[in-house]
Amino acid sequence: MSGDDTKSAGPLDGRPTEVSFADLGLRSELLEVLGDLGYEEPTPIQREAVPPILAGRDLLGQAATGTGKTAAFALPVLQRLGPAGSRSRPTALVLVPTRELAVQVSEAVHRYGRSLGARVLPIYGGQPIGRQLQALHRGVDVVVATPGRALDHIRRETLVLDDLEVVVLDEADEMLDMGFAEELDAILESTPASRQTVLFSATLPARIAGIARRHLRDPVRIQIARTSAAPGEGPLVRQSAYLVQRAHKPAALGRVLDLEAPTAAIVFCRTRNEVDQLTGTLNGRGYRAEALHGGMNQEQRDRVMARLRNGTAELLVATDVAARGLDIDHLSHVVNYDVPSAADAYVHRIGRVGRAGRQGVAITLAEPREHRLLKNIEQVTKQRITVEKVPTVADLVARRLDLTRADLREAILEDDLERFRVVVETLSDEFDLVQVAMAAVKLAHEAGGVPDDDQDIPDVELRSPPPAAAGRTSGAGGKQARRAAQGPMTRLFIGAGRKAGIRPQDLVGAIANESRLSGRQIGAIEIQDRFSLVEVPEDAADEVVAALRASTVKGKRQTVRRERGDTG
Ligand code: AMP
Q1: What does pTM read for this prediction?
Q2: Domain 22-223, CATH
Q3: How far is Cα 419 from Cα 410, in angstroms, rounded to an integer?
Q4: Which residue's CA is the closest to the ligand 1 atom numbered 14?
Q5: What is the location of CATH 3.40.50.300 in the chain?
Q6: Which atom of ligand 1 lies at the shortest distance from residue 70's CA?
Q7: Considering only the top CATH level, what class is 467-562?
Q8: How far is the CA of 246 from the centre of ligand 1 (A)?
Q9: pLDDT beyond 80 at 518
Q10: Domain 237-390 is in which class?
C-alpha cells in the first residue's frame, strides 16, 4: 500500500503552507461560492487531493470526517459539469455508508455547486422510491447513494450510469464494515470502464487495498501526515473535548466558558462566516468578543488586537489564517469551536497557551462524527484529550447552589449579622426557623442571578463502532463508556411546564428533596410549554415518580409518570 508516490498532506515542519483555492486551479464559480461560505484556505487534504482529481487521476485518500474531504472530491467533480441544460444523466456517483451521510454529503455538494446549478440527489433505503424515480427522471448531475439502494436502481434501470465520469467511494472502510463489499463490486462493474475513481477511507486495511487493486487505475495515494511533536516540546496544556451536536454548540460553548472563566481566550472557527456568527452570539450572551478573520484590513485587525491586549475584549474569535503570526501572551484558553482539519493545525493552535511554564487550557468542541479526528490528534501529540460531559442545567444549578452556600458561609463567619436578628426573631414567631432560613437563602441565591437558558443540551453518544472496528474509539469515548456503566437513564413526564412557571431548578429541587437522588444524578431536563421531561437513573425512577406524586412541584400536585414509549 505504501508506494513511493504516497504524498503527505501537511508539511513536515508543522507550519502551514500558504496555498489558496485559486492556486488549486478551480473555476471561478466555485471560488466565488467558497468565498461566500467564508472558507479562507484549503485544508491539507484539499491541497493534496484537488489537483490530481482535477487532472483526472484516480485517487486513494486516507482522511477522516472533519478533514474537509467532502469538498476535496466535490469541487473537482463539480468542475467537470457542463453548462446547465446540456446534461441529463448523472456525471458522478458518490457512494456513502449511511443515509445520514447521504443527506449530509448531498447537501454539501449542493452548496458547493449552487452557482453551477448542480442537481444533486441523495438516494437511500427507507425513502419512498417514487420521489427518487421522479427526480432521476427529471435529470440529476450528482447522485449520492447508499450501496444497497444504488444497486436497486441500477438493476431496475432507473439509475443509468452510461454517462458517468466519476465514482467516489466515501468512507469506504465503513461501507466494508457494513457488509457492502459485494454491492460495491457490482456497482463499479456496471459503470463505464473509462470512469475516474476516487476512494476515501479513514483507515486503510487490507480489504481496502483489495478494492483499490480491483477498481482503481494507478491511483495517487494521499495520507494525512502523522507529524509528531518533537519530544519535550509539548506545551503545558490541559486538553479537554466536549462532544456536542452542531446545533447545540453555541449553548455548550457558553456553559463551558461559564465554568472555565478564562481571563483571555481565542476561539478558533473554520470559516469567516462562523467567526462573524459566533462573535454575535457570544456578545449576545454577555461576553466581550471580537472577530478576527482574513476579510478584515490591517487597521481593523490592529484595533481588535489592541482591545484584546488592554482587556476591553476577553474573547477573540478567529480563523487560523487570521490568527497566524499573532503574538498574544496572556491567553489562558484556546478553544477549538470545531476540531481542526489536521493535527498540525491543532498543535499550532494550542501552542498559543501554556507558554513559559504557565498552565494553559485547550478545549475542543467536537461533533460525534469527528471523534476519529480527535483520536488522530491524540496520536500525533502523544497527549491525552479528556472527553468531558457538557455541563447540564442541573450541573449549573448545583454549582450555583454551591456558590450560594459558600457566600452564606462567608457571611456567617464575617459576623456582622446582628442587625438582622430582629427580622429573624419576628418571623420566627410566625414560621419555623428553617423556613425562614430557606426563604433568605432563596433571595440570596436569586440575587446572584439565575440561569438564562433552561434547555438541556442533549448528551451525545459516539456512533457505535461496527463490530470489526470495536475498541477503536475507546480513547475518546472512555468517558461516555463510564457514564453508561453508571446505569441506564429513564425519562419522566411531569404535567407542568413553562406556562406554569416551572424552571429546571424547581424540578431539581423537588427531586432532590423528595427522593434519595442528588442533583448530580439527575440527567437532562427539558421544559416545554405544558410539560417537562427529566432524566433520572432507571433504578430510581419508580421511587422518584412515587415521591413526586405524593408531594408538590411549584406548590401544586402534578401528573408524574414515566414518559410514554419509554419501555425501560
Ligand atoms: P468534511 O470533513 O468534509 O465533513 O468537512 C468538515 C467541515 O469543514 C464541514 O463543515 C465543511 O463545511 C468545513 N470545511 C471544509 N473545507 C473547509 C475549508 N477549506 N475551510 C473551512 N471550512 C471547511
Answers
A1: 0.67
A2: 3.40.50.300
A3: 17
A4: 68
A5: 22-223, 237-390
A6: 3
A7: alpha beta
A8: 13
A9: no
A10: alpha beta
